[in-house]
Design brief:
Layout: E1 2-7, H1 10-21, E2 26-31, E3 35-40, E4 50-56, E5 61-67, E6 74-79, H2 80-96, E7 102-110, E8 113-123, E9 129-141, E10 159-162, H3 166-176, E11 182-187, E12 193-198, E13 203-208, E14 241-246, H4 247-256, E15 263-268, E16 272-280, E17 285-294
Antiparallel strand pairs: 1-5, 1-7, 2-3, 2-6, 3-4, 4-17, 6-9, 7-8, 8-9, 10-15, 11-12, 11-14, 12-13, 15-16, 16-17
């Protein structure tokens, strides 16, 4: 098994790992010839959410080489804090260096322990050569564990909407959560989004209009092999669909959100709220981070 890559976009990788470090102490990673995948599992019963990311290799790396007996795919688990320390070191040094900085990521074994080795080299402002190496302990999975990276089974969403700027959403959520532990997330096909909280004494709602509704893209599953042949469901654009979620879960998404790009919400009514954070160009993104927030059954 061999892996080596030059990290050409350390800031993007840093922001991704920062996001996962706020959710869980460990994450699973899968490297293929074309993409890098990351997943993070947290305890849904404790207000946790499931998060995953997929990004094209060329958006992060150059001189990318991978080889393994599993169709050139490598699965591993890594502590997010340890990887974050190395990436912050690379980012800080890149800002202080007088010239270009090389950041090389490779997998190796040291003292019988598998490590992800990050080598940072360049010149200081005084012109002296500098080399810093971080060896991050990892667990390499010797068998195919691709099921860890599978998306949770969800019904087809009833509606999708591009969210307002996350800073504005965060301000609204901070004000709503003083009234309840639960937030009602509602949207329709005409660009309306409503966030509300209710208790025995008060009901507070904030509404946005004229948001974009991306077209629904059908996601096929093994349970629905004939889905591609089915015509899209015609829906009333004025009909609102709803998902009740725990503020604790939604705040975990907001607190982990590091990438300043657009976010799409998919509502699977009474099942889940799925949030897609796209990376790169709006028209042709290089990757996506996906957050699954389970619905709280109304009446529970």
């Amino acid at each position: 098994m061999r892996f080596r890559a030059d990290v050409s976009q350390p800031m993007i990788l840093l922001q991704m790992i920062q996001t996962f470090s706020k959710l869980q102490q460990k994450c699973d990673m899968m490297f293929t010839e074309t993409d890098m995948h990351i997943v993070c599992h947290s305890d849904i019963s404790e207000g946790g959410i499931y998060a995953r990311a997929q990004i094209k290799v060329e958006a992060l790396f150059s001189q990318y080489r991978i080889q393994s007996n599993a169709d050139n795919t490598i699965f591993l688990s890594v502590a997010t804090d340890a990887l974050l320390i190395a990436l912050r070191s690379a980012s800080n040094y890149s800002e202080k260096a007088s010239s270009g900085v090389d950041i090389i990521l490779r997998l190796a074994k040291k003292h019988d322990q598998a490590v992800m080795s990050m080598e940072i080299s360049g010149q200081s402002r005084s012109g002296k050569p500098v080399r810093i190496t971080h060896d991050i302990q990892i667990e390499v999975f010797r068998t195919d564990v691709s099921e860890r990276f599978a998306e949770p089974l969800c019904p087809e969403p009833e509606v999708q909407v591009l969210l307002p700027p996350i800073g504005k959403v965060r301000t609204v959520v901070d004000r709503l959560q003083v009234h309840s532990d639960l937030m009602l997330f509602q949207a329709d096909g005409s660009g309306t989004l409503q966030l509300s909280a209710t208790n025995d004494d008060v009901s507070v709602m904030v509404e946005w209009h004229k948001l974009q509704n991306p077209p629904l893209a059908r996601v096929l599953s093994s349970q629905d092999p004939d889905g591609a042949s089915q015509a899209p469901v015609e829906r009333d654009p004025e009909e609102k669909y709803r998902v009740l979620v725990a503020f604790k879960s939604f705040q975990k998404f907001l607190n982990s959100h590091q990438l300043s790009t657009h976010t799409m919400a998919s509502l699977c009514q009474n099942h889940a709220l799925i949030l897609y954070v796209y990376m790169g160009d709006d028209a042709e993104p290089n990757g996506v981070m996906i957050f699954y927030i389970p619905a709280v059954m109304e009446g529970d």
